[in-house]
Amino acid sequence: LGRCGVNDALQPVLQRILEQADALVVGSPIYFGQMSGATRSFIERLLFPSLVYSNPVSTMLPRTIKTGLILTMGAPEAAAMQMGYDRMFEVATWSFTTICGHCELLCSYDTYQFPDYDKVVMEYADPVKKAERRATVFPEDCEQAVALGRRLAG
Asked: Running along the chain, 154 residues long, what does each successive block of 10 average in pLDDT?
């Protein structure tokens, strides 16, 4: 009850987060419209055991853990919304908010994926524009991530 049923090396980490952490930031790239499998597994193992099937759904956690979710993706924001990424964002933030009591989401769109675009087939991406965005927008995204961390830690 309230603990992940898998008894492995991650179990004590999960318990320490749930029992001692004041804040937690989880980051993941988006692949095929979803967080990475490893990130998704971590989130499921962390949150699911504390879920209470009440009406409305609630949590067993006796306190709030301030959480942040940082997601990076190669898709531009408009394309991500057109493909329905916003629904995945809603489910993820709902999960953290419901179980932990607080969640902030930060998305970094249209990221620079490859150090050399000449070595991959990617006709829909303009490498020059990707590099320009990495030089101008990505530093702002990083500043927002630092600010998110400070808010959660504060």
From this structure: 85 94 97 95 95 94 96 95 96 96 97 87 86 95 98 94
Structure tokens at 27: 């980051």
pLDDT for the residue numbered 122:
82
Q: Which one, of 86, 104, 101, lies nearest residue 30 by Cα? A: 86
Compute the distance between CA of residue 77 and CA of residue 74 in angstroms, rounded to an integer.
9
* pTM of the entire predicted model: 0.92
Label residue 110 left, alpha or beta by phi (over 0 means left) and psi (-120 to 50 means alpha): left
The DSSP line for 89-109 is HHHHHHHHHHHHS-EEEEEE-
Query: In this structure, what token pair is assigned to residue 70?
Result: 């940082």
CB 99 within 8 A of CB 53: no
Print the SS3 string covering 1-15.
CCCCCCCCCCHHHHH
Give the pLDDT of residue 124: 79
Write the CB contacts of 7 (distance below 8 Å, at least 6 apart in sequence).
none
Q: Which two tokens stand for residue 115?
A: 């150090």
Extract the tokens encoding 103.
Answer: 């969640």
